[in-house]
């Protein structure tokens, strides 16, 4: 663990502004005085660890950044961070294994905060067959694998629409987390070819991925699953991306 050189008050102010919340509104949510909150942000008052966590909860700050703010305030991190194969994570790891197994014969993949593949079921092979082996060298970034010209992109029949959907989703995640690594990934993905006619239509109910596989043309809906009320950084940053058939033909092909 290393401390940050940015004062905790400045970090809190930055998150408040990122969320578009006034001092008055945040103070009301956190049940503190506006004057005290102002003093905290300017460094005139040192917040307690309880107050830092309280403000972070009201601002929906990710657990990793909450630990950063506690360190900046001179306090120990409040949230653990374990490897998925660590003993305390046994129940989480088993739950992920069961979800992936139960989702067969439909593809599913587990990703972390940076969209790097943590685990996947066997059916994911239907999507990643024939991609450049270099893109499958760990760590495998799922978004890069999807949109890279040597990845899935040449076989995504609605590439412009699907690409716009993924980029819009990534933009939202960056706005919510302020993650610089994701911002760099977004710049990289925007540089890939295949964006002709891409647009994000907010009126659409859901965007399926139309994919040409060795089994035939597939239409797949993506569903994201996250753990509720996580208290560990690793768990908070995990997501399971599950693909479901969008039509009867796709379901029959995958079950075959």
Automatic annotation (TrEMBL):
Membrane-spanning parts: none
Domain HTH cro/C1-type stretches: 12-66
Pfam family, one: MLTR_LBD
GO molecular function: DNA binding
Superkingdom: Bacteria
SUPFAM superfamilies from the UniProt entry: lambda repressor-like DNA-binding domains (SSF47413)
SMART domains associated with the record: HTH_XRE
Record's protein name: Helix-turn-helix transcriptional regulator
């Amino acid at each position: 663990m290393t401390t940050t050189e940015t004062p905790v008050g400045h970090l809190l102010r930055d998150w408040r502004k990122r969320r578009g919340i006034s001092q008055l509104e945040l103070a009301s949510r956190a049940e503190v005085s506006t004057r005290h909150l102002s003093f905290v942000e300017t460094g005139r008052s040192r917040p307690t660890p309880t107050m830092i966590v309280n403000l972070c909860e009201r601002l929906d700050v990710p657990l990793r950044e909450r630990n950063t703010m506690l360190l900046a305030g001179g306090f120990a991190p409040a949230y653990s961070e374990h490897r998925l194969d660590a003993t305390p994570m046994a129940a989480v790891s088993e739950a992920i294994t069961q979800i992936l197994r139960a989702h067969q014969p439909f593809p599913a993949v587990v990703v972390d905060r940076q969209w790097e593949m943590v685990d996947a079921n066997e059916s994911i092979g239907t999507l990643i067959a024939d991609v450049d082996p270099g893109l499958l060298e760990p760590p495998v970034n799922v978004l890069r694998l999807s949109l890279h010209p040597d990845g899935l992109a040449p076989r995504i029949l609605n590439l412009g629409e699907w690409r716009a959907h993924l980029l819009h989703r990534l933009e939202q995640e960056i706005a919510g987390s302020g993650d610089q690594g994701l911002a760099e990934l977004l710049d990289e993905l925007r540089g890939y070819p295949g964006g002709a006619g891409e647009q994000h239509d907010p009126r659409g109910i859901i965007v399926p991925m139309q994919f040409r596989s060795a089994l035939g043309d597939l239409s797949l809906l993506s569903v994201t699953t996250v753990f509720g009320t996580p208290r560990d950084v690793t768990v908070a940053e995990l997501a399971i991306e599950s693909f479901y058939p969008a039509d009867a033909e796709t379901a029959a092909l995958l079950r075959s």
